[in-house]
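Hello Y.,

Per our agreement to keep a running log of every chain we model this quarter, I'm adding this entry. I've kept the format consistent with earlier entries: sequence first, then predicted structure.
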Amino acid sequence: MYEKILVPLDGSKVAEEAILPHVRSVAEEGRKVREVILLQVIETPPAWVMEHDSFQESHEAQKKIAKEYLSKIQSQLKLEGVNVTSEVLVGSAAETIIDFAKQKKVDLILMTTNVSSEISQLIIGSVANKVMRYSRLPVLMVRPPVKK
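Predicted structure for the entry above:
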């Protein structure tokens, strides 16, 4: 049913632990998933931040960390037989996810609803909400398990 799946990740262990079992389940052999695309979006900061010299170095470091993070997960999934690629993009998270999904002609966006810290919950919850509300593609939201 789903041939191409987009999985936005924020770099948090909580989101990773919540979403990867579902990625494996959906991509399980015999389900005809051709490709899983891992995506991390580096938020574009306000214009006044981009004017500072140290911004470029910091931004490049963020991209490098994101690429390494996704590469690790990509390698792990490939060992399990999943055809997976990864991308790091810069922009407004929700808009970038929706636009990228359309561009890549994905069949499903699979993402988490929130993460552990309160600030991240507000940001990621907002991103997940916007993606669910404005995407014309099916979106499967996975809530991270509550730790006891």
